[in-house]
From TrEMBL:
Residue ranges of domain SH3 in the record: 612-676
Molecular-function annotations in GO: guanyl-nucleotide exchange factor activity
Gene3D superfamilies: Arfaptin homology (AH) domain/BAR domain, Dbl homology (DH) domain, SH3 Domains
InterPro entries: AH/BAR_dom_sf, BAR_dom, DBL_dom_sf, DH_dom, Dynamin-Rho_GEF, SH3-like_dom_sf, SH3_domain
Keywords: Guanine-nucleotide releasing factor, SH3 domain
Lineage of the organism: Eukaryota, Metazoa, Chordata, Craniata, Vertebrata
Annotated protein name in UniProt: Rho guanine nucleotide exchange factor 37
Gene Ontology CC, one term: cytoplasm
DH domain location: 35-222
Source domain of life: Eukaryota
PROSITE patterns in UniProt: DH_2, SH3
Pfam families noted in UniProt: RhoGEF, SH3_9
Residue ranges of coiled coil: none
């Protein structure tokens, strides 16, 4: 064989090998394209089937379950977030169908990636709420399983509603979103695996696959944060017995370590981990909480006084003014205000102001508990922060603290922002309600304007007249109230029990007799530091005003606890002397038995006109008045008894007239009856 023949054969072999290689490469590309198309079709077809089953469960099955008698409890909570998942899935398929391209078209991959990326934020929002609440769904379904008859009805409804699906429980459908969100990265990575890097949409596909992975990570982190928040934001009301049962070696050691770390912080032995960002958020939260609680308290006080105003039905009183035009107009105006305008205003206040503020107050409990728990976890974290190697339990402690801290840093600004918006909205609504009230009242008064006096006056003159009339009426009312109070404010003396006597001695030794007051009506505390006091209890006055200068709330010592009580329920206590010292000025004639202690009892010994010798009422002991309603007398001084009891019917005090015409109360047991000395 010549050299030329050998070279020709070699050339033919190379050509044959190249042809075979090109054919194999083309076949491989064809197979990859086929697999890519199958993966794309699987994603689209599985999405359509997934959406169909979700609609079947939230539509047909849910409606049939609601027809059961009685319908299953908490059924709406089972399908709480599934509508958002259905919406985002249908929008994804709608974008694919809108482009009018089929999975085999090279442009379909680009359309798929653009649609997924465009909806990625909506997909995350829908699925993270569904997955975070999925545990509650399983809890509700397990509660159905505990009732055999109910569960049999549920299974029957599922089978009849979806006979083509071999499903025997709600979780068959409700777990699908949990599985679907995790399948997106797998399906997209499969498509990417069978797509050439030279494909025009390869970079977009790679970005979409990475987005789906990051999306799953964020959803799982959100779910983990929610689980931590749900665990620690609850407020438990445990009895002492329950708390004792919870004590064990581990909990005691943990609380001891926290207490020790706190002591080291306070003494400067250990540095405190400072997070300025969180400290600022925490401070603002507590300021906001205080403002919400203060606003709610003011609204409740406002409604309380409004109720009191509505309860005064002045139009029902006959003031003997029939025939006078002005009183008739005022009566009709008052009737309209009390029966229509103000009740409507009160109802709107409770619905639009009181109810939202009450709901907002209840929402504060969760963040407040999380902030307190974070402090505990921070103390635990500081104890292990410096360690290089952490045990499994210590690593869990560190992860829990980091999770709670991150959760609060992310969620607390959003919560306070929404709460602040609610407060501004409530205040705006409050202003609008009063504007509407003013408009209604103006319309009401205008209908009577021509019939009322002073209606022809100029605006400035009318305002001046109205202000002076109101001030004059207030002055007269205040004078009347003071007069009535002075008349009725007789001292109250209640019989004391042995425990009350001990408390009286304790309070007197500590604060002095001038500070002792008695409760004239039951007191039920409604605010922080308020005391609950029974009628007749003795207290000592510490301050005649609270920390804000409100003189309606007095700071009192109740013989142990200290707190605030309304001043209107307190009156000065006058201790009856068990055995007053004998007075040298009082000498009774021989043969007349001296009556001491309740010797003057007008009920048992009514004074009648007698023949000689006549008797007179004397002060048996010195008494010094401690108030305007009392009168001072000296032992042996004759007095005239005007009333044998005070205005409350208490016989322990008598209203007398002393020398000089001075009138006031003195203790009844300070009076005695003695014969009148003969005249010479």
């Amino acid at each position: 064989m010549t050299y030329e023949e050998l070279e020709n054969k070699t050339r033919r072999l190379k050509s044959l090998f190249f042809l075979l290689f090109s054919t194999e490469e083309a076949a491989a590309k064809e197979r990859a394209a086929q697999r890519q198309m199958l993966a794309i079709e699987e994603l689209v077809h599985s999405e359509r089937n997934y959406l169909r089953l979700l609609r079947l469960s939230s539509g047909t099955i849910r409606n049939n379950l609601q027809k059961l008698q009685p319908p299953p409890a908490d059924l709406d909570s089972v399908f709480l977030d599934i509508e958002d998942v259905i919406d985002v899935s249908s929008r994804l398929l709608g974008l694919l169908d809108q482009k009018l391209v089929q999975p085999g078209d090279p442009r379909f991959l680009e359309t798929l990636c653009e649609s997924f990326l465009g909806l990625s934020s909506d997909i995350e929002a829908a699925y993270k709420e569904y997955l975070a609440n999925y545990n509650q769904v399983t809890v509700v379904e397990n509660s159905y399983k505990q009732k055999e008859a109910l569960w049999n009805d549920v299974v029957r409804v599922i089978k009849t509603s979806a006979p083509e699906v071999n499903a025997t429980s709600l979780s068959f459908f409700l777990v699908m979103p949990v599985q679907r969100i995790a399948r997106y990265p797998l399906l997209l990575q499969t498509i990417q695996k069978h797509t050439e890097k030279t494909h025009p949409a390869y970079a977009l596909l790679e970005r979409t696959a990475h987005t789906s992975i990051a999306l799953n990570y964020r959803i799982n982190e959100y779910k983990r944060f929610r689980e931590v928040a749900d665990k620690y934001k609850k407020t438990e009301t445990l009895t002492i017995k329950d708390k004792i049962y919870r004590l064990n070696t581990h909990s005691i050691a943990k609380k001891t370590a926290r207490f020790g770390q706190h002591i080291r912080h306070e003494t400067g032995m250990a540095p405190k981990l400072v997070d300025e960002e969180f400290d600022a958020l925490e401070g603002f939260f507590y300021v906001l909480e205080h403002g919400i609680l203060e606003l709610l308290e003011n609204v409740e006080t406002y409604l309380y006084h409004l109720q009191g105003f509505l309860s005064c039905r002045t139009e029902e009183f006959d003031l003997d003014m029939d025939g006078e035009k002005a009183p008739i107009c005022y009566k009709e105006i008052t009737t309209a205000l009390r029966q229509w305008i103000l009740p409507t205003f009160e109802k709107r206040m409770r619905t639009l102001i009181r109810k939202p503020l009450g709901a907002l107050r209840d929402l504060l409990v969760g963040p407040r508990n999380l902030i307190r728990k974070r402090l505990d976890k921070l103390l635990d974290y500081e104890l292990i922060e410096a360690k290089s190697n952490l045990s499994y339990e210590e690593q869990d402690v560190a992860n829990t603290y980091r999770t709670m801290n991150t959760l609060l840093l992310n969620e607390l600004p959003q919560f306070t922002g929404v709460a602040l918006q609610m407060i501004w909205s409530v205040l705006g609504t409050f202003s609008c309600l009063h504007r509407d009230l003013a408009a209604d009242m103006e319309q009401l008064f205008q209908s009577f304007a021509q019939q009322l006096p002073h209606s022809s006056m100029e605006r400035g003159a009318f305002r001046e007249w109205a202000e002076s009339a109101v001030l004059e009426g207030a002055r007269r009312l205040e004078t009347l109230c003071r007069s009535v109070e002075h008349t009725l404010n007789g001292p109250v003396v209640q019989p004391l029990s042995p425990s009350s006597r001990r408390r009286l001695k304790q309070l007197t030794d500590k604060h002095g007799s001038g500070k002792i007051y008695q409760v004239v009506g039951s007191v039920v505390g409604s605010r922080d530091l308020d005391l609950n006091l029974a009628r007749g209890e003795l207290v000592a006055i510490i301050s005649e005003a609270d920390t804000r200068g409100d003189k309606r709330r007095w700071l009192v010592d109740a013989g142990g606890p200290r707190g605030y009580a309304p001043s209107s329920k307190l009156i000065r206590y006058h201790q009856p002397t068990e055995d007053p010292p004998p007075s040298p000025q009082l000498t009774l004639p021989d043969g007349v038995t001296e009556t001491r202690r309740h010797s003057y009892t007008p009920e048992s010994q009514p004074m009648t006109v007698m023949s000689q010798p006549c008797f007179q009422v004397l002060a048996a002991y010195d008494f010094t008045a401690t108030g305007n309603h009392e009168v001072s007398v000296r032992a042996g001084e004759p007095v005239r008894v005007l009333e044998p009891r005070d205005k409350r019917g208490n016989p322990e005090w008598s209203l007398v007239e002393a020398r000089g015409g001075a009138r006031g109360y003195v203790p009844s047991n300070y009076l005695a009856i003695a014969p009148r000395p003969p005249h010479h």
